[in-house]
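U., I forgot to send this yesterday:
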Amino acid sequence: MPLPHFLILLLAVILAAGLTIWLVTAIGVPLYVSGLIALSAAAIVHLVVRVDH
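Result:
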């Protein structure tokens, strides 16, 4: 992957994370609850996705 594409992708991920945190706090959801939701979603995706090695 060329460096400019990587940097744009990195910037997009950082902006999306910042927007998500701002939106969650603006709605009034405690930060630890959003963290638990993110961890639960990651665990579900990990268990559902089948990877053949």
